[in-house]
Description:
The chain has helices at about 20-35, 40-45, 55-65, 110-120; strands spanning about 40, 70-75, 90, 105.
Amino acid sequence: MLNLNMRPWIKINGHVHKRVRDYLLATLLCHIMMKTGCSLKSLYERYVPALQPMHIRDLVEVLVKMGCVTMRKIRKTSCKLFEDEDSIEIEDATTVLDEADELFVDAEVDAVSKLASKIDNGTFNFDLFKCPCHA
């Protein structure tokens, strides 16, 4: 039986294409840093032609495990007329079953240095804004 995990950063032979993975992680982190507090749904809308929503979520969860970003669930609660409490609940624990419009992603202060220290050495020896195949 063949178990094939289809991800853009995984080659057909099962090995990780580190350059693609690192580029996608850096791209997502830069977007999250530009749009602080963006929802997971807005990330889906931004990258959906190139990446599937589950791939984006996988990459964001990798960034969470690296300590580069935090993902929080913000849920609006029903508000009653004579209550003084806030109508928003913030939870740090997220699950796979949470809706994308309830999950918000924030970058940590040292996100870039954490990402740079955890990716493989030598993968960013090219300019990020030039096409690597035409260098």
